[in-house]
Each structure stands twice: as structure tokens, then as C-alpha cells.
């Protein structure tokens, strides 16, 4: 009985996971997006499924696939679509994990036709996207909420701030300092923060990181 081999330890629980980037349309052929691979979210979904959970995976555009028939995969494109999809399920989930790299801003207007390169300069007006996880936090009744944070400065302080501001139960801090960590890679180095404590983990594959995260969630749920 080793870590990660829990026998159906999440049986009876519903876990919702957001994953991947979001794409915010500029015109019919262009978007603003980011390099998130979606790997962390898919690894979490597969690990939660192994543990017997009902898994709802809401993913932005990503090359990731899963063979796991137990994972309910919902593909979305924009932050707004991701928000709407999350709230189709939100009341009925036990655990919500936000691993998506949601675009913070979207073009104010989506051009109906492809934008032509008529002018020397082009200024885009962007507007803030809805904060999906913060909205989940505001509407929390019984859900256990897990956020992610990617910081380049004052890492712990900023992550703790997000934990509080978004009404989370725990936050996973991704380290950018170490080679091989971060959101394009197959490996990750994390630190988990709660209201009362923190735990640091070694650099490892995202599949193993998913085991650490879900072990931590389960330990918190048993408290
Ligand atoms: N998140 C979200 N919806 C958004 C932005 C972020 O659900 N519109 C979630 C992410 O999935 C992550 C957490 O919020 O779990 C923190 O995301 P992050 O980008 O680190 O923080 P922001 O709140 O967007 O603040 P900033 O980018 O300014 O640091
Ligand atoms: Ca952000």
C-alpha cells in the first residue's frame, strides 16, 4: 500500500478539473492564447479516475488525449465557455481543481472579418476575463477547492494571497526557478500551501505530481 496505489480512495466523490489554455478570439482566424500544455490537468484527471472518482475534465485547446473512458472530457475554447461549463456541474462536485491557464484578458471586440494589415500600427483593446476559480470560491457551499499559482516574484506571499482572495482550501505553487519545471514541460516542482501550513516537493513527472496533489487533498478531507 504505497502512495498513489490507494484502492478507490475517491470512490463516491466527484472531481472537476479545469485544464489547458484558453483561446480568446480576435477575428475568425486568430486568437490570443498561451503555451499551457494541459498535461497537469490530464494527469490529475487520470489519477483521480484511478482512485475511483467521477471525473469531469474541462479543457481548453490542448493536444492532450486520454484513453480513460471514465473521464468525462468537455472541450472548450474561451474563458467564458470554460466558466459556463464549470457551472453546469458546480453544485454537484466535491472537489474542484483549477489547473487551467486561463487567459486574463480577451479582445474587447471580435472582428467579424479577418483583420487586414492596412495600418502601420494596430492597437488591440483587451478586457478582463471572468475569474473562474474566484467565482467558484464565491459560490462555494461544500466544495473543496484547489488552485494553482505561477509566480515570478514573492512566490509564497502571492500564492497565499490567491488562496485567500479566491476562498480556496489549498493552492499549488509551481516553481519557475528550476529547470524542467513549469507549464510547457513534462515535469513540475511544486509547493502546496494551505491556510495553516505548507509542504515542498521535489522535481518530478507531472503524473507523480498528480499523485502528490491528490494524496494531499485526501489528507485534508480526512481532517
Ligand atoms: N484562474 C481562473 N480564471 C481566471 C484566472 C485564473 O480560474 N480567469 C485560476 C487558475 O486556473 C489558477 C488560479 O486561478 O488556479 C490562479 O491563476 P493565476 O494566473 O496564477 O492568477 P490570477 O488570479 O490570474 O492573477 P495574476 O495572473 O495577475 O497573477
Ligand atoms: Ca493569470
TrEMBL record:
Binds 1 FMN per subunit. Residues 10-218 form the DNA/pantothenate metabolism flavoprotein C-terminal domain. It catalyses: N-[(R)-4-phosphopantothenoyl]-L-cysteine + H(+) = (R)-4'-phosphopantetheine + CO2; (R)-4'-phosphopantothenate + L-cysteine + CTP = N-[(R)-4-phosphopantothenoyl]-L-cysteine + CMP + diphosphate + H(+). The keyword NADP does not apply. CTP binds at residues 104, 114, 130-133, 148, 162, 166. In the C-terminal section; belongs to the PPC synthetase family. In the N-terminal section; belongs to the HFCD (homo-oligomeric flavin containing Cys decarboxylase) superfamily. One of its GO terms (biological process) is coenzyme A biosynthetic process. GO terms for cellular component: phosphopantothenoylcysteine decarboxylase complex. Keywords: Decarboxylase, Flavoprotein, FMN, Ligase, Lyase, Magnesium, Metal-binding, Multifunctional enzyme. Catalyzes two sequential steps in the biosynthesis of coenzyme A. In the first step cysteine is conjugated to 4'-phosphopantothenate to form 4-phosphopantothenoylcysteine. In the second step the latter compound is decarboxylated to form 4'-phosphopantotheine. Catalyzes two steps in the biosynthesis of coenzyme A. In the first step cysteine is conjugated to 4'-phosphopantothenate to form 4-phosphopantothenoylcysteine, in the latter compound is decarboxylated to form 4'-phosphopantotheine. Its cofactor is Mg(2+); FMN. Residues 15-223 are annotated as: Phosphopantothenate--cysteine ligase. This is Coenzyme A biosynthesis bifunctional protein CoaBC.
Amino acid at each position: 500500500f504505497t502512495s498513489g496505489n490507494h484502492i478507490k480512495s475517491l470512490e463516491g466523490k466527484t472531481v472537476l478539473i479545469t485544464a489547458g489554455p484558453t483561446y480568446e478570439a480576435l477575428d475568425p482566424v486568430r486568437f490570443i492564447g498561451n503555451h499551457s500544455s494541459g498535461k497537469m490537468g490530464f494527469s490529475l484527471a487520470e489519477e483521480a479516475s484511478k482512485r475511483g472518482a467521477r471525473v469531469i475534465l474541462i479543457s481548453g485547446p490542448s493536444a492532450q488525449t486520454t484513453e480513460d473512458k471514465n473521464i468525462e472530457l468537455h472541450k472548450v475554447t474561451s474563458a467564458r465557455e470554460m466558466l459556463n461549463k464549470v457551472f453546469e456541474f458546480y453544485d454537484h462536485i466535491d472537489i474542484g481543481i483549477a489547473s487551467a491557464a486561463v487567459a486574463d484578458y480577451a479582445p474587447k471586440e471580435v472582428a467579424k472579418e479577418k483583420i487586414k494589415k492596412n495600418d502601420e500600427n494596430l492597437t488591440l483593446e483587451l478586457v478582463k476575463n471572468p475569474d473562474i476559480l474566484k467565482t467558484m470560491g464565491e459560490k462555494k457551499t461544500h466544495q473543496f477547492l484547489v488552485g494553482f499559482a505561477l509566480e515570478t516574484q514573492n512566490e509564497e506571499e502571492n500564492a497565499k494571497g490567491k488562496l485567500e482572495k479566491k476562498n480556496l482550501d489549498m493552492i499549488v505553487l509551481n516553481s519557475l526557478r528550476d529547470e524542467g519545471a513549469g507549464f510547457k514541460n513534462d515535469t513540475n516542482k511544486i509547493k502546496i500551501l494551505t491556510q495553516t501550513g505548507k509542504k515542498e516537493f521535489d522535481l518530478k513527472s507531472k503524473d507523480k505530481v498528480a499523485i502528490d496533489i491528490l494524496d494531499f487533498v485526501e489528507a485534508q478531507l480526512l481532517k
